[in-house]
Every structure is written in C-alpha cells, then in structure tokens.
Amino acid sequence: MTPFELNTLAVKRFGEKDWLKKLAHETGVHERTVRRWWNGEAPITERVAGHVRLVCESPAPAKGVAR
C-alpha cells in the first residue's frame, strides 16, 4: 500500500475532515504513526495494509440506530 492509497481509502471511509485521527483510533495506533505512514516516513507493511483495508472497506456504523 502506498501513502496515496492509504489516504484515498481513509478519506473515502472517514471523510476529508479528521480522517487521520479516526484511522488512528480504528487501527489502535497513535495518530503520529498514521501521519508517518501518510508522509512516507514509515513503511506501510502488508500486515498494516491489510488491517487498514479491513477497517476502511467495512461499512460505516449506522448513525442513530439504537443498540
């Protein structure tokens, strides 16, 4: 996964605003780690890429649905 692919998937799933913060929360990593992936400062391993794809390609939870 490239930084561009990371950004594209995350923005598609979480929207333009706060996608980085939301992706960090959903993947259980620090926001700085996601920023390093996005900036190309840290490699996006296959394991990480698979997890990001799983998170970003899963349907968003419905809003206003009682549990």
Please explain how this structure is put together:
The mean pLDDT is 87. The chain has helices at 3-14, 19-27, 31-39, 46-57. Helices cover 63% and strands 0% of the residues. It starts with a helix and ends in a 10-residue tail after the last helix. It is globular. It has 67 residues and is an all-alpha fold. The chain has one domain (3-57).
Which tags fit this structure?
67 residues, mainly alpha, 4 helices
Total domains: 1
Gross morphology is: globular
Number of helices: 4
Q: Helices and strands, in N-to-C order?
A: HHHH
**Distance between the first and last residues' Cα:** 35 Å
The helix-and-strand class reads mainly alpha
Unreliable stretches (pLDDT < 50, length at least 5) are none
User: Over the alpha carbons, how many angstroms does the gyration radius reach?
Assistant: 12 Å
What is the typical, i.e. mean, pLDDT? 87
Largest beta-sheet characterization: none
Proportion in helices: 55-70%
Based on DSSP secondary structure assignment, what is the total number of beta strands?
A: 0
Q: Note the beta-strand portion.
A: under 5%
